[in-house]
Amino acid sequence: MIVRKVLIVGDSISSHRPSVEKLGWSGSWGMAASTQDNDYVHLFLSRLTNLQRGTPPKLMIAGGGGGKLADKLTQLEKLKAFAADVAVIQLGENDNKHVTPLGFQKPYEDIACAILAGNPTVRLFCFSVWAPPQGSPLKDTMIREVCQKTGATFVNIDRVIADPECKAEAEKRFWHSGVNWHPGDKGMRGYADALWQAYTNQPFLAETTPSPIRERTKVLAVHDWGRLKKGFTAKTDALIGENRYETEIPAEQVRGQKLLVKTKIQDDFISATEKQNLNLHISLELEDAEAQITREAGRIEFRTPHVKWSHRMPDNLIRAKLVLEPINMPDTAVLGPLIIAISGKR
Fold it and tell me: Where does a domain end: 173, 199, 225?
């Protein structure tokens, strides 16, 4: 059968317009590929055209930098009307809030169903999420479930993600960390290979049996604050000023993981009123691969001696800064070690 229409529904990995001043990116194709011919979309299209003895299909790319599931939900009628013979969904990298069945899996399924409504015989392929170096098991599990429900094929790129040479950073062609987070030419070939193997029914990377998912906690840093008197007097270079703790967190280690901040208070010499008013203000400054900066804030109240705070870190994170500020800290307060850790599924 001749494939006449190919639909790609993706984010910047599938297509990104020029952003020279902000990102140092001048292309208009899959971000971090050296040329249009080297991005995964056009590598796949070239193979498909050759298979069809030189007959190219019509291509529609619903892509864009920072693309999220919610963005595509506004385009469902357009995706349906295209009536693709082959369709690819490459999404999830920028969807880092509400990663739940309702907030992630449901909109993903709505997109798949809209494509199927346009052509019930479409061959639909869904990529796992690009989140180097560890992948995104939670999102991938939900994408697999969508594939099982709709009859789509799950295309696993875990081996591409695990290879550091597949990141654009390894090719040293770009200066911006966000561009370098994307797959480079080798990574794009990995995408194209995985998709082609799935399309031609080869089992290599298109397997549908997930690896066991295990919860794992890893401590990144332990800081001894020491005794607090009118502010921090801890023995750590990360302390800034009287009442402020600030540190950079390695993005490569925390992407897609749950960040944990834990400490304890020795409250033997603190009155009940002082304890009730005491809290620790927490803020995170996060920069993603599109150079968008967001700030997340929280607060720890010392209602029990052992306290903790957590936040799920984005898959497309390139920089993270943690700031802690004690509020209403009495002179007699003593805090135990500050533990910064990650908890994630592997």
Answer: 199
